[in-house]
Design brief:
Layout: E1 14-17, H1 30-40, E2 45-48, E3 59-62, H2 70-81, E4 85-89, E5 101-105, E6 118-120, E7 134-142, E8 159-171, E9 174-177, H3 181-188, H4 191-195
Helix pairs in contact: 1-3
């Protein structure tokens, strides 16, 4: 090793909670999505099991598939209280009844990104908005679900109306996604996911 590297320590600020013992993520899953997003953004990150101590990090990412135990939830609340930030996929609940929906970016998320509704190909429940939530992206429903009864010549039906759920919200240092953003990025490479 070069002399200037002797004694060096990684300045990793992001912890991604990892659900399996394997080192490499499976193709097309949320772990691959986190790998691609943070690598492309130039962020150093560590994969950690949910039981690991993540208090030294500035940001903890909780992708889909991480079991929500009371012990983990308590540690995440303490982490937020102590000034840390959390990004989590909150996918509990009944999925929105469309094969594809659209996201409309709002506020600061809409800056420097095309002002249009962006198609999202993965199912998710969306988020019920609470009074102190800032909506980062809202769900726009299509005219109808493209299937054998209703046909549109493209892969999805055009956007029609605002839904009653949010796609992404922020409350203090907590950002929640109501859709599998990381898996969608691994599968489709949709820049909207990385932008959010």
């Amino acid at each position: 090793c070069e002399p200037f590297c002797a004694g060096a320590e990684a300045c990793t600020e992001v912890a991604v909670l990892h659900r399996s013992e394997g080192y490499l993520p499976a193709k097309g899953d949320a772990m691959e999505g986190t790998l691609r997003i943070f690598r492309e953004l130039g962020c150093q990150f560590d994969y950690l099991p949910p039981s690991a101590d993540f208090s030294k990090y500035r940001l903890v990412v909780v992708p889909e598939g991480i079991g929500q135990t009371e012990e983990l939830e308590s540690r995440l609340r303490t982490f937020l209280i102590n000034g840390g930030a959390v990004i989590r996929e909150d996918l509990g609940g009944e999925p929105i009844p469309f094969a594809q929906v659209y996201f409309r970016l709002l506020g600061k998320c809409a800056q420097d990104f095309p002002a249009t509704d962006h198609v999202f190909y993965e199912k998710g429940p969306g988020l019920k908005v609470k009074a102190d939530d800032e909506i980062l992206a809202t769900v726009v429903e299509p005219y109808f679900d493209r299937n054998w009864e209703h046909y549109c010549s493209h892969c999805q039906t055009p956007p029609d109306r605002l839904g009653n759920r949010a796609a992404a919200t922020r409350r203090g240092n907590l950002i929640r996604f109501g859709f599998p953003i990381f898996r969608a990025y691994a599968t489709h490479g949709n820049l909207l996911c990385r932008h959010l």
